[in-house]
From TrEMBL:
GO molecular function, a single term: hydrolase activity
Swiss-Prot/TrEMBL keywords: Hydrolase, Metal-binding, Nuclease, Nucleus
Organism placement in taxonomy: Eukaryota, Metazoa, Ecdysozoa, Arthropoda, Hexapoda
Protein name per its UniProtKB record: DDE Tnp4 domain-containing protein
Superkingdom field: Eukaryota
DDE Tnp4 domain mapped to chain residues: 178-344
Amino acid sequence: MFSHESSDSDSEYEEDIEFLVLATLIKKKEIKRRRYWVHPVNNKRESKGEFHCLVKEIENDAQRFHQYFRMSKAQFEEVHSLIEGDIKIHTKFRKPIGTKERLAVCLRFMATGNSFRSLGFNYRMGFATVKIIVEQVCNAIWKNLAPIVMPQPTEQMWREIAKGFENVWHFPNCIGALDGKHISIICPINAGSTCYNYKNEHSIVLLALVDAHYRFIMVDVGANGRNSDGGIYQESLMGKMFESSQLNVPPNKPINQNTEPLPYTIVADAAFPLKTYLLKPYSKAKLVNNNPNKIFNYRLSRARRTVENAFGILRARFRVLQGPLQVQPNMADKIVLAACCLHNFLTQDTQETQETLMDESEVSDGNGLVDIEPLNRNPSQEAIQVRKAYKTYFVSPQGQVQWQMQAITQGRTRFN
């Protein structure tokens, strides 16, 4: 009796297994039947896609072409010629998406910040295809443009940068303005609070050194948003190379005929540590009834504004940076690096830069770029003496500018 019941139970169990297997096969067959090699909508890409219709129409309209891609047609062609070999796809199954169309998709993504899904509908491509194209083109831009528009500076290049700061911003021996910005991203997968910053947002940090004409000299991207700016700088390759004197910085040079040689310096805000090669403003506590300190802060602020302006131009030109990037940190790094390269490439044209700054219709009130949190550190006596020497020069007849006293008395000085 016991054996008979056991046999019936085994039989019912086998029938259940067969039913589940059959149901699974039917479901897979249904799913397979609904799949497309290319969706019928996307099959019309070459006749109705945005690249083959709208872009072709605006090719002969310089203004609209520039508004669409954030660059002129000649600049588009130059970028394409530099990266074409790295974004070309060969396939035996079907006609691949052309290299110019791939570049157009990436530039439109960076110019607008539209989602991959939105661009997929506009260009009649698969949503995953758009993501792959953006990542591939960003990699190609960094690989091919960075050695041209952002090479590692030589000793002569540092001298030219210092000359620019002295001529334009009246700050001698300055080889760059340094700052960092939080770039907002969506919450990374399984990241916890790794990228959670003091503004209650998830972010990665763009650390940049900028010359007198708003061009990036060096950038470091990808540090977690929870880290402090000074700590990010100390741990970055840029900071380590400056600290170990590996960046071909020229030897000390007198800023006036009657002064001792002073080191070439970087100007930064209060978030960074004071060093012999890195100057920061005096704290508010040291500004009370102290005009020389106020003048130093004013002169440093004038030179340091170049990095703030560079971030503003970058954000105005590439709207993808105006809100949280809807990608994971690794891809966000690639997008930001490509944007910095394109910024330098486009900033070679001063007229184009000024137009970008003045185009208020292209700037939103978003907060994609956020300031870095200040961090207090005790500087060395040598660094304090270097800052004091620059301050003395700025209040001397040889180093002063005629409007500096008026500037500090009218309260326009940035103290930190």
